[in-house]
């Protein structure tokens, strides 16, 4: 009987130190591929997001100074990740007839390992991959890729669990913002007043989060979230959210950087209201108001697009960047807002 992916990873360092449910999660997220003799896995100087493990076969590392080193699967050295330093310090070439490789997203793996260690001495972990599915899905979110691993502990320590029932309104459109939420169990509907009628615009399930828009933009809630199944929610207070999540998750660019990105194909998005956009806007920008951003952006762009969002001051654009990043886009918020970019464009015209 062949070994399962989880069994194969359980022999590797430092995965062998993790709990069974965490190993199962990493095994399910790994990409497995077979390579033939002579194929190159990476080259000296490469910078990438992958951690590679050798499950079968032999790989040779060739260093710039001419030295070589062999990595053999299931040997002591072969149980470690293949040259995980960045940039890569050597070129890795398959020298056996066949080699099998497991690839893991490095940042996600680090966060899962950090959480595994924290959960041993906390109430966040409940002992099974299924019961912890909300954690794994949350950490997979692209927005949380930017969260420093050191903040993971603070985030989970700050979570408060609450029980909710079908029909409970967790947040209401127009109310003041107080918490950031993650669905641990259950499901919810997101409702907004569109064309003078309240309509369901999305459904949320285990691992989905909500409530960050108003916290990031310092405005009232822009939607109602109502439970459609009994469940449990994890929530962070406004203060903890601002201390732990807000600063590192939103990536900012100054006007000069934004101008350079725009010249290489990035899209400028004005997240203010249409009336504000009509009064004055950055040349070449398109208007997608923050309150409709989720609905409008999906059909207009693909995840490979770079998006730069701006408003007047940065409040709404920080919320927009967080939302877009969580949706899988490469998004940036513009420092200095509208007027900072206008000054940059005037400077370029006068040069």
- In the CATH hierarchy, the architecture of the largest domain is Sandwich
- How many whole angstroms does the radius of gyration measure? 23 Å
The structural domain count equals 3
Query: How would a crystallographer describe the biggest sheet?
Result: 5 strands, parallel
CATH superfamily of the largest domain: Jelly Rolls
User: Average pLDDT, to the nearest integer?
Assistant: 85
As a percent range, the share of helical residues equals 25-40%
The structural class is alpha+beta
With strands numbered from the N-terminus, the spatial order across the biggest sheet is 16-20-19-17-18
CATH level-1 class of the largest domain = Mainly Beta
Query: Which fold name corresponds to the CATH topology of the largest domain?
Result: Jelly Rolls
Uncertain runs: none
Quick one: overall form? Answer: globular
What percent strand?
25-35%
Q: Count helical runs.
A: 14
Number of strands: 20
State the end-to-end distance. 71 Å
Compile the SSE list and pairings.
Blueprint: H1 5-9, H2 20-29, E1 31-36, E2 40-42, E3 50-56, E4 58-62, E5 68-72, E6 91-94, E7 98-105, H3 106-119, H4 133-140, H5 142-145, H6 149-158, E8 160-164, E9 169-171, E10 179-185, E11 188-194, E12 197-204, E13 209-210, H7 212-217, E14 224-227, E15 231-237, H8 238-244, H9 246-249, E16 252-253, H10 255-263, E17 267-270, H11 274-279, E18 286-287, H12 293-297, E19 306-310, H13 315-326, E20 330-334, H14 337-350
Parallel strand pairs: 16-20, 17-18, 17-19, 19-20
Antiparallel strand pairs: 1-7, 2-6, 3-7, 4-5, 4-6, 8-15, 9-14, 10-13, 10-15, 11-12, 11-14
């Amino acid at each position: 009987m062949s070994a399962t992916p989880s069994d194969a990873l359980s022999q590797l360092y430092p995965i062998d130190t993790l709990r069974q449910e965490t190993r199962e999660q990493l095994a399910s997220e790994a990409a497995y591929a077979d390579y033939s003799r002579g194929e190159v896995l990476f080259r000296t100087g490469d910078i990438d997001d992958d951690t590679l493990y050798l499950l079968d076969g032999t790989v040779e590392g060739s260093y710039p100074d001419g030295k070589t080193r062999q990595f053999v699967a299931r040997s002591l050295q072969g149980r470690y990740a293949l040259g995980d330093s960045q940039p890569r310090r050597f070129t890795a070439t398959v020298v056996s007839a066949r080699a099998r490789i497991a690839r893991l997203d490095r940042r996600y793996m680090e966060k899962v390992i950090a959480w595994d260690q924290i959960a041993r001495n906390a109430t966040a972990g409940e002992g099974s991959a299924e019961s912890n599915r909300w954690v794994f899905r949350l950490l997979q979110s692209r927005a949380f890729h930017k969260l420093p691993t050191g903040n993971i502990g603070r985030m989970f320590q700050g979570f408060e669990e609450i029980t909710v029932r079908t029909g409970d309104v967790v947040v209401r459109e127009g109310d003041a913002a107080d918490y950031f939420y993650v669905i641990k169990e259950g499901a919810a509907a997101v409702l907004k007043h569109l064309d003078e009628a309240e309509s369901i615009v999305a459904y949320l399930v285990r691992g989905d989060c909500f409530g960050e828009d108003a916290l990031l933009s310092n405005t009232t809630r822009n939607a109602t979230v109502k439970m459609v199944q009994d469940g449990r929610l994890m929530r962070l207070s406004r203060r903890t959210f601002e201390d732990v999540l807000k600063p590192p998750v939103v990536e900012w660019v100054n006007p000069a950087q934004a101008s350079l990105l725009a010249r290489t194909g990035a899209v400028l998005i004005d997240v203010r209201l249409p009336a504000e956009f009509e009064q004055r806007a950055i040349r070449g920008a398109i208007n997608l108001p923050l309150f409709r951003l989720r609905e409008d952006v999906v059909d207009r762009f693909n995840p490979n697009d770079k998006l730069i969002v701006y408003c007047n001051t940065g409040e709404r654009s920080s919320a927009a960047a967080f939302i877009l990043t969580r949706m899988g886009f490469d998004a940036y918020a513009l420092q200095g807002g509208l007027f900072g970019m206008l000054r940059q464009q005037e400077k370029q015209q006068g040069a």
